[in-house]
Design goal:
There is one protein chain. It is built from 13 helices and five strands. By secondary structure, it is of the alpha/beta class. The chain has a five-stranded mixed β-sheet. Helix 5 crosses helix 6.
């Protein structure tokens, strides 16, 4: 039996090692969501501390409370509440538990921040983007040698809860779940149309959009790339349905170049998990989708850390409008001049 009055050498060595590797405890202010390191913030908010401060400066004039009465939330807290919901897609009460706030406060804060972000859509989402067209064409050309491309066009479905009312069936898509169908043009997101129910076809959304009118009037010198669900137009090139030899090379370059928009969809939904399913009304789902698109462009501009992207789902949408004769002629010229 060891003598209680003698020091154990092993215990002494353990104490020395413990003191050497001990980390000083840091007590952070719970009211300051930015009092954590960037890894912690990214996992919960998808932005670094500097990125969140940038958003606070942008949104502060629109969302700041006039007084601090009734323990009003700070701008930083409001922005972090919205970012946590966008990043996690959790129930509002779960976000409230994480942020130590009640559900009603979370709901009001989310709505306020969402509308403030949406108001900045014209600043961060514009077609063409805030770059020269020649630079955009060169970027797309480097992918697979497809010339004169100024954007890749497609639609993605955002799942929502079944809405109430007489128009509930309009939101059921071809995969038999409720959704809104959102059109985007990418390299970065340069156009968003988020207002159509899931049953509306991609090409119908495009024909009703402002960008279709601008392209058809010849406002831009370049073409978009779309899948087989769209009719071939002089400003929108689609792949051949039954390609021959030279046409196969065209289709291959077309698919690789157009994949940019599919990658953007995957990155957007991986960054903001709420877009996998929104438990809100269709109108609010559209607002949240536009807000996430704005935040995605902000994250890209600031070079925030990008999440891992899972494989995208191929919808294989059949066309409902025929190819335009001038569009088919231009497509044949592309094959002859660049892929023969």
């Amino acid at each position: 039996m060891a003598c209680p009055f003698l020091r154990d050498v092993v215990d002494e060595e353990a104490l020395v090692l413990r003191r050497a590797f001990r980390r000083e405890r840091v007590f952070r202010d719970r009211l300051d969501p930015l009092a954590y390191h960037d890894d912690h913030l990214y996992e919960r908010y998808r932005f670094s501390a500097d990125g969140i401060r940038y958003l606070c400066r942008l949104l502060g004039p629109r969302i700041k409370h006039r007084t601090a009465r009734s323990h009003a939330l700070s701008v930083e807290q409001m922005v972090c509440v919205a970012l946590r919901f966008f990043a996690s897609g959790a129930f509002l009460y779960s976000v409230g538990d994480a942020e130590q706030l009640n559900k009603a406060t979370i709901c009001r804060t989310l709505r306020s921040v969402c509308l403030a972000i949406k108001a900045l859509a014209d600043v961060f989402i514009s077609f063409p983007p805030h770059r020269r067209l020649c630079d955009i064409k060169e970027e797309f050309y480097r992918i697979a040698g497809f010339p004169n491309v100024i954007g890749a066009l497609d639609c993605t479905h955002i799942r929502i809860k079944a809405p109430s009312g007489a128009h509930e069936a309009d939101f059921v898509n071809r995969k038999s779940f409720h959704s809104i169908n959102v059109q985007m043009v990418c390299s970065v997101i340069s156009n968003v149309v988020a207002k159509w129910p899931g049953s509306v076809h991609d090409s119908r959304i495009f024909r009703a959009s402002e960008i279709y009118q601008r392209l058809s009037q010849g406002e831009f010198s370049g073409v978009l790339l779309g899948d087989r669900g769209y009719g071939c137009q002089p400003f929108l090139l689609t792949p051949f349905t039954d390609p021959q030899e030279a046409q196969q090379a065209y289709n291959h370059a077309h698919a690789r170049t157009r994949a940019r928009v599919e990658m953007t969809f995957g990155l957007l939904k991986a960054r903001f998990h709420c877009l996998h399913k929104l438990r809100v009304s269709p109108v609010r789902a559209c607002d949240i989708t536009v807000a996430c698109a704005v935040l995605h462009n902000v994250a890209c501009l600031r070079k925030e850390r990008a999440p891992r992207v899972p494989p995208a789902m191929d919808w294989d949408n059949p066309a409902i409008f025929p190819d335009d004769d001038s569009g088919r002629l231009l497509r044949d010229q592309y094959v002859l001049n660049y892929f023969s």
